[in-house]
Amino acid sequence: MRNVLLASAGLLVLSAFAPAMAADMAARAPYVKAPPLAAVYNWTGFYVGGFGGYASEDSGTPKMSGGFGGGTVGYNWQAGNIVYGLEADAGGADVSASVTALGITAKSKTDALGTVRGRIGFAVDQVLFYGTGGYAWIDNKISLSALGVTVSQSNFHSGWTVGAGIEAFFAPQWSVKGEYLYRDLGSETYFGIPSGDLKLHSVQVGVNYHFGGPIVAKY
Fold first, then answer.
1. Which of 30, 31, 89, 148 is deepest in the core (most CB within 10 A)?
2. What's this model's pTM, rounded to 2 decimal places?
3. Contact at 8 Å (CB) between 21 and 49?
4. Which domains does the chain have, with CATH numbers?
5. pLDDT digits (tens, 9 = 90+) for 166-210
6. C-alpha–C-alpha distance, residues 131 and 181, integer Å
């Protein structure tokens, strides 16, 4: 009986101090901060933007060269790390060359250009590496000047383009890209003389705004 009484007294003491001990242990337990939100970039959706660059003729003496700039609109789809889409761009240009002989100055100038292209690439989070290709066009004019008189003829050249680029988000919904394009624009007739194929190398940079919130935050 004496042992039973002692055991009961011990249990009573433990029950009295148990809440305080549990509270003290909870107070001493280390604080674990929740992990930060991670941003997962999704390239799917519409985008618009602007671009500018420099183009030069593949061959010719003298070679046409100069700058250009304009606007872009496109749509991306993403499946896993694969991103594919369609993009169209158009802009003004000052890509030209001139030569003078026998008192006659001949000048060729491209004052507008554009493309409609497919894109396919591989996304590594907010960075996209891609190839691109499709339809290309330019509006080109050749002028002949002599004795203060100038005559000119404009033609619309169309052909194909292929290239590659890299694009990366630098802020929510905003991306920057760099791109190289080779353009083969076919031949047109000026003043009864075929121009020969007009081929351009171009490099350009651009900034795009993506609609629909391309960033999904999650733990």
1. 89
2. 0.78
3. no
4. 40-218 (2.40.160.20)
5. 999 998 899 999 999 999 998 999 998 998 889 999 999 999 999
6. 10
